[in-house]
Amino acid sequence: MYLGRVGQSSKIEIENLFHQQFNKQPDLQYFKANHQCKQISNSSSNTHSIMRKYVAEFIGTFWLVLGGCGSAALSAAFPEVGIGLLGVSFAFGLTVLTIAYSLGHISGAHLNPAVSIGLWAGGRFSTKDLLPYITAQIFGGILAATVLYVIVTGNGSAIGDFAANGYGAHSPGKYDEASALVTELVMTFMFLIVILGATDKAASPGFAGMAIGLALTLIHLISIPVTNTSVNPARSISQAIFVGGWAMEQLWLFIVAPIAGALVAGYLYKFLSKNN
To answer: Mind listing the domains of the chain with CATH numbers?
Structure first.
């Protein structure tokens, strides 16, 4: 009887232990499911964050081309009240200034393939985001040029040079190819030096947008007579597509020179700030 009771007791204990372990399985399954949900949620959140950056670059570049090239095509030579070279220069600077403070916290407000490439060369921008940023910038610029084309032709006018960049016969001051190449390379180089310095952790916070916007204004004041000022391949591509002909033939310079200037500035500032 005693042995029988012991055996029966052991059997009951084993069954209880089995049921306890079995009942724990739903908790384990719940934990796994909850963990998977969190992973999916985090992945979705990361995707949303990434897309926000690209959309911000698209909108920002759209505003730069619409505001800057729009002021040149519509307002620069308007009879009696035209804004002229000074007004166009400030228009480009103001587009960057306004986007820097409105969308800069989302994407960094590059608005320019040369800026993205320069920041990448300076170790301040990731390789995986480089191509998507450039794509968003180019398409943002093209959309702005499309809108501007509709507006400019709305009174029956031809688009003319459409604020496209050019050299030789298509330079506002008839400057040759060498002058254009040096101008675009040096101006983009200095633009990136200002951007990298103003956004450095050691720089005074809160003033980067102002410094960058004013730098772009100054660059236009210097170089509009030479090339109509590019320092931005997306801005040049967008206008050249609509002008065609000579603008497309000369477009290479306004892609190569700004990128070269940005790369030199990025690597040089990386060297200068190494101790910081």
So the answer is: 53-272 (1.20.1080.10)
In the block, residue with structure tokens 């969190």: 38
14 token code pair: 């084993």
Contacts with 215 (C-beta within 8 Å, 6 or more apart), sequence order: 93, 190, 191, 194, 195
DSSP SS3 for 229: coil
- Taking residue 51's Cβ as centre, other Cβ atoms within 10 Å add up to 11
CA of residue 260 relative to chain centroid, distance:
18
Count the Cβ atoms, other than its own, within 10 Å of residue 164.
31
Q: What secondary structure letter does DSSP report for 125?
A: S
**pLDDT tens-place values along the chain, 276 residues long:** 334 444 455 555 555 554 555 455 555 565 555 556 555 555 566 777 789 999 999 999 999 999 999 999 999 989 889 999 999 999 999 999 999 999 999 999 999 999 999 999 999 999 999 999 999 999 999 999 999 999 999 999 899 899 999 999 999 999 999 999 999 999 999 999 999 999 999 998 899 999 999 999 999 999 999 999 999 999 999 999 999 999 999 999 999 999 999 999 999 999 998 766
Q: Is the dihedral of CA 153, 155, 158, 164 positive or negative?
A: negative
